[in-house]
Amino acid sequence: MIEIKTPAELDGMRAAGLVVAEIHEAMRAAIVPGATPLDLDAIARRELAARGATSNFLGYHGFPATVCVSVNDVVVHGIPDALPFREGDIVSLDFGAVLDGWHGDAAVTVAVGEVPEQVAKLIADCEDALWAGIAAMRAGRRVRDIGTAVEKCIVSRGEYGIVEEYGGHGIGTAMHQDPHVMNYRTRQRGPKLVPGMCLAVEPMITLGGPETHVLDDDWTVKTDDGSWAAHVEHSIAITPDGPWVLTARDGGAARLSAMGVDTPATVR
């Protein structure tokens, strides 16, 4: 089942998305040499409580924390630990929240201090691919169009591995819903995008091959070749006026307007 939200329900989704955006900002500010993934988890717990929200990660299939913290060659689902960040690391934060029954979910990859140009480009290109996918989210198009746009952007930027085992998803009264949103072109067109549909789009790319494996903790996903990875994500609503990025402070207005894409964010 694909949930189609009413305008009032989309406002609830937006409120949850803003909680996610605000807590992401608090965690990003704390990513400095010497800080630890457990420090970020503590920030997330504190900020969730301050906003009357709960975590949709904590306890999900047994996940033990409120945020996934994935460092360097960890692609996704890293469990927070006490190992300090070092200058030159990259850290991916995947975090979500529930407010009044509505879910928000977003991810970002952050450099710890200065990183090599190739690594900075990896992060920037992954972000650009996310926004290319978002720009394709217009009523009347298909889910496949999102993955096609993501892949096209990635391939145009360089020799990256596109991780295929993990992707985006529907979101609403649960964190993971239909449909699955792939980060590459497929033969299946997928469902039509209609107003009221909410999707999380989340490309993951590596500096090497796309192959990954899961560690013995049954969560942590690493690249097979040890190459570093970037992971970014937003939750987006399809509206008659264009995509509304629920987990971006400005609703996606700045990035989408610069791409020539109509969005309702400027009037909300």
Topology as a string of helices (H) and strands (E): HHEEEEEHHEEEEEEEEEEH
Unreliable runs:
none
How many strands? 15
User: Please, what is the CATH homologous superfamily?
Assistant: Creatinase/methionine aminopeptidase superfamily
Return the CATH topology. Creatine Amidinohydrolase
User: Helical stretch count?
Assistant: 5
**What's the number of domains?**
1
CA-based gyration radius: 17 Å
Question: Could you tell me the strand content as a percent range?
Answer: 15-25%
What does the overall shape look like?
A: globular
CATH architecture: Alpha-Beta Complex
Instruction: Give the assembly state of these chains.
Output: single chain
**Major sheet: size, sense and barrel closure?**
5 strands, antiparallel
Secondary-structure map with pairings?
Blueprint: H1 7-29, H2 37-50, E1 54-55, E2 67-71, E3 74-76, E4 90-99, E5 102-111, H3 117-135, H4 143-157, E6 161-162, E7 168-170, E8 177-181, E9 198-201, E10 204-206, E11 212-214, E12 221-223, E13 229-231, E14 234-239, E15 242-245, H5 253-258
Antiparallel strand pairs: 1-4, 2-4, 3-12, 4-5, 6-10, 7-8, 7-9, 9-14, 10-13, 11-12, 14-15
Helix pairs in contact: 1-2, 3-4
Protein architecture, described:
- The protein is an alpha+beta fold and 268 residues long.
- The protein has a single domain, classed as Creatinase/methionine aminopeptidase superfamily (Creatine Amidinohydrolase, Alpha-Beta Complex), CATH 3.90.230.10.
- 29% of the residues lie in helices and 25% in strands.
- It contains five helices and 15 strands.
- The protein has a five-stranded antiparallel beta sheet with strand order 8-7-9-14-15. Strands 1, 2, 4 and 5 form a four-stranded antiparallel beta sheet that branches. A three-stranded antiparallel beta sheet has the order 3-12-11, with no helix packed on it.
- The longest helix is centred in the N-terminal third of the chain and has 23 residues, at 7-29.
- The protein is globular.
- The chain starts with 6 loop residues before the first helix and ends in a 10-residue tail after the last helix.
- The mean pLDDT is 97.
